[in-house]
Each structure stands twice: as structure tokens, then as C-alpha cells.
Specification:
The strands form 3 sheets. Strands 2-1-5-4-3 form a 5-stranded antiparallel β-sheet, sandwiched between helices. A 5-stranded mixed β-sheet has the order 7-9-10-12-11. Strand 9 (302-311) and strand 10 form a beta hairpin. Helix 7 (196-208) runs antiparallel to helix 8, helix 7 crosses helix 9 and helix 9 runs parallel beside helix 10. The protein folds into 2 domains: 31-174, 2-Layer Sandwich (Beta-Lactamase); 194-380, Histidine kinase-like ATPase, C-terminal domain (Heat Shock Protein 90, 2-Layer Sandwich). The chain has 12 helices and 12 strands. It is of the alpha+beta class and 388 residues long.
Amino acid sequence: MVIGSAIVAVVVAALAIRWVVRSRPGLGSPTDRATYETLHLASLASPALRSGLDQSSAERALRYLSRLLGTPAAALTDTEAVLAWTGVAPELAENAASLARQTVESGSSEVFGPSDVLRSGDDPMYGHMVAAALTVDGAVVGSVLVLTDEPSASLVRATTEVAHWVSSQLELADLDRSRTALMEAELRALRAQISPHFVYNSLGAIASFVRTDPERARDLLMEFADFTRYSFRRHGEYTTLAEELRSIERYLVLEKARFGDRLRVTVRVAPEVLSVTLPFLSIQPLVENAIRHGLENKAGDGTIVVLAEDAGNECVVTIEDDGVGEDPDRVRSALAGSAGSDSVGLGNVDQRLRTVYGDEYGIVIETAPDAGTKVTVRLPKYAAGVER
């Protein structure tokens, strides 16, 4: 009986919802719906174009661009050939390639008639093409072509505007490639700066334990192998804070083997920030810099404190040492990438953080001679395009 009542209740509710939906007025005006459709189709085409212009991206984007233009057929080309064709009369693609080359040569919008578009015996139903050039940084890289029965000023204008939008997406793709290449070059430069002094000292410390404490020598050698494996890995421009901190701990184990009881280390990490994604080798060089320039030349004991704290939408990492400190002018030179600076990677890390997250992020350094050094790095927990 209870089950039967429940079924009746569900049916009544479904009928009520159906009546409400049918009785509601249309959502938005025709102009609103047209605007939404245009933006929606553009958003669907964008991811393919942001990977650059090739056959695969052209095929994926064109299905949406043709709907955006509302023509029976459309094509995307590079400077020589048709990359993708969608719609009626695919046999016209061969002629379209010739028309595309003319458009590329002129660098503007063109309208072609039946004598240019059709071959002998072709169906004259669609005998016109409108073409618009695609440009990236002032260079023509291809074209958009649409097939139509009768060209109009509005279709020419629409095709030209779509070509401008496609060009902007291709420019962003070009910018993404340049940015990736720059970051890879900066990362190679940073790897090259990993101190040979540290490598020699680590191996020397390991060798000193070979006779007196072979087990510790073996453990240190494994730490050294893991540290170098992480530092010189070849996959991915991003890592997690957890992985970066594990590498830092290995580095500090090796340095403690060298300094002995003179070096005190504190590492405190909020569990909430361990999964934060950040550019590879963003924190490790800062710790190395604290040891090399802050504590190595200090008489007596030294302390380094590494903190990673949860700060709402951000993670705040600080590296603080009670070493010899530094002249603020020299620090500014290091952040500016001065050729005379020997600080390990400060300018490199600062520039990469700003490239990824924007100029509001980067390294903040507080220091003075004989006053120690504190380096602060703020990292957004989530940032577009930053994925491991």
C-alpha cells in the first residue's frame, strides 16, 4: 500500500512539472538566444584552434564554424591546401585550394563567382565562394572559405569577422607555444645552474662515510640519486608541492651530512597545500640559495626553516635562514637576472612564476647584511592552464 501511494505521488509530481514547463514563457528574446548560440559555437571551436592550424584542428573546429556562418559548405585552408571541408559539394575542394591561394596572396576578403568556383558539369546551385584570410602576427597563414548560392554584403562581413576571430585564436596558440618554449629554455638554464659545488661536496660527504658508516653512505647515495633524478627529469613543466618538498628534503639530508650538527632544519607543511601544482623547480633553488649564500659562509651553527601554509585561495611558501644576509641591491640584481649575479636561479624562478601566474606573483625577499634572509612565494591553489 505504501509503495502504491509512492508511485501515485511520483506520477502526480511528474505531471505537475510537465505542466509548469509547458506553461512557462520562452527564456530570453530571439536576440538573446542568437547571441548565446553564437558564443556557444565559438567556445566549442576555440579549443581546437588553440592547438594551432593543422588538418586535425581544422576538422574539429570547422564543424562549429560552418554552423556559425550558416552556409551549405565551408572550408579551412593553410597557405597551400584545403585542410578541412564540411557540407555539400566536397568535389569543389580542389578548386577551393586554388581560390585559397589567391586569398592568401591578397591577404584580404575575396568573392569568387561560378567561373572560378565551378568546373565543367558541376551543379550550378552553389556557384559562389566568399573567402577571408587568416593572419598571425601580420603573416597570412590560411583562409576561411564559404560556399553560397548568392553572396551578400552581410555574408562577406560575417566571414571576415569569423576569420578575424579564428586568427586571434591562432595567435593565442602561437603565444602558448612561444611561452612553453621559453619556459623549457629557462628550465634548462636552471638545471645548468645546479651547483657543481653542491655535487662535489655531496659526493665528498658520502665518500667520508664509506669506511666509517657504510650503511649511511649507501643511504646518502640513494638520496643523491633520487635528488638528481628529480632535478633532471624530462617530463612535464609542472609538479606538485609534495614532490618538490620531497626533493628539498633529500637535498637537506645531503647538506646535513656535510654540515653535521652545525645545520638545523625545520620543515612544516599544511596538508591542505600538498596537492598544489606549481612550475617544476620553483622552490628547490630557493632552498639551495639559502644554504649556499646564507649559511655556508656563516661561522658557527645555522638554521633554515621551510614553511608551506594554507592561505585561503593561495598557498604561501617561505624559506628563512639566519645566515649572513645580503645587500638588497645585489638581490635586486639577481632578480633582474644580472649576468654578474651568482645566486642560484633567483631571477629564473621569479620570471617563471610571473610568466605562469602574472606579475602579482613572484618572489619577495627580505634581507640585509648580517640579518639573515626570508624568501616568500605565493602560489594560487588553482590557475588556468596549470596542470600536472
